[in-house]
Design goal:
5 helices; 8 strands; alpha+beta; about 200 residues
């Protein structure tokens, strides 16, 4: 897919995310890979529901630098980490949904484990509701380099698939295309909402 079509698909996904209220108050950030060396990342402080292709900055994956001099997202280092760790990752979506944010605070362990949901099959490679699906959960950190280092260290010993949660912050997910990343986001958000409802009902 050409750079123009990749960005156009990402812009459309951003408008869809904005319409759902999943990136409120200019929160969240999204990117698409250009090649092995470069990606295009949303500019800091922009409303994700009204982004255009002009609101994306070219960023060097190895250095997190934007040649334009404009300010990329605060979480640039997480996007570039994913592109380095997963050569087949073509798009990264970071959102601030209520379900992901609250679950990340309620769950005290280092991962959220989901099982028994048919919609687990919305995630690539998942074929049955009987599997247990772990979603890694990391403590939030304003030092993005330090956070990226912890995530990278975790990935050396544990499978890191689809996405991860940051405590009190939200979900970062990815896919081999914009369409797959969007499907993973929608599937995970549905699963998070189901898990929230299940936990609330079990407490009554």
């Amino acid at each position: 897919m050409t750079q123009h079509l990749q960005l156009a698909a990402l812009v459309e996904a951003c408008h869809w995310i904005g319409a759902k209220g999943w990136a409120p108050a200019t929160g969240g950030n999204m990117s698409v890979r250009e090649d092995a060396h470069w990606c295009w990342l949303s500019e800091s402080g922009k409303d994700k529901g009204s982004l255009t292709t002009a609101d994306f900055l070219q960023v060097e994956i190895a250095t997190n630098k934007a040649p334009s001099g404009r300010k990329p997202s605060a979480e640039t280092g997480l996007h570039t980490l994913i592109y380095r760790l997963f050569p087949d990752a073509a798009a990264v979506l970071h959102v601030h949904t209520v379900n992901a944010t609250v679950l990340s605070r309620v769950e005290k362990s280092g991962e959220l484990r989901l099982s028994g949901y048919e919609m687990q099959k919305s995630l690539s490679g998942q074929t049955t509701h009987l599997d247990t699906l772990p979603i890694a959960l990391f403590d939030n950190d304003q030092d993005i380099d330090a956070l990226a280092g912890r995530i990278e260290a975790y990935s050396r010993e544990n499978p890191l698939r689809y996405g991860f949660l940051l405590r009190g912050h939200g979900l970062t997910c990815w896919g081999r295309s914009v369409e797959e990343a969007k499907r993973h986001l929608e599937g995970l958000e549905f699963l998070f909402e189901c898990e929230m409802q299940r936990r609330l009902l079990e407490r009554r």
